[in-house]
């Protein structure tokens, strides 16, 4: 945060006829540093005041830190290993213990279905 500027050190440099170059006026430098807050002797506010969290922020952080509860889904047993669909279904072209793997059963196509 920029509190104060001192372009070309105009506020703190002093030209003197005895010296060939300007020099820093100590009291002007200290006054300028005090105005910027760099030499502020007041006690800073407590850390808790600066880094305090509001109750709603605390609640959010607590919910984010809480271990995620694993929701155990129940998968439909279609007979195909590794299938994780949760609804009743069949896999076309894949014969399993539960299904023949055909869209229309062979008995229905041949007309031998009872």
Topology:
Elements: E1 13-14, E2 23-24, H1 26-36, H2 47-50, H3 55-65, H4 106-110
Antiparallel strand pairs: 1-2
Provide structural commentary.
With 114 residues, the chain is mainly alpha-helical. It has 2 domains: 1-66, no CATH class; 73-114, no CATH class. It has helices spanning 26-36, 47-50, 55-65, 106-110, and strands spanning 13-14, 23-24. A two-stranded antiparallel ribbon has the order 1-2. Strand 1 (13-14) and strand 2 form a beta hairpin.
What class do helices, strands and sheet pairing give?
mainly alpha
> What is the helix/strand order?
EEHHHH
Mean pLDDT: 79
The residue ranges in which pLDDT falls below 50 over 5 or more consecutive positions are none
- Whole-number count of domains: 2
Largest sheet: 2 strands, antiparallel
Strand content: under 5%
Quaternary arrangement of the chains shown? single chain
Straight-line N-to-C gap? 86 Å
Number of strands: 2
What is the 3D form? rod-shaped
Number of separate helices: 4
Order of strands in the sheet with most strands: 1-2
Helix content: 25-40%
Give the radius of gyration: 40 Å
Summarize the structure.
This protein has 114 residues and is mostly helical.
Keywords:
2 domains, mainly alpha, single chain, 114 residues, two-stranded antiparallel sheet, 4 helices
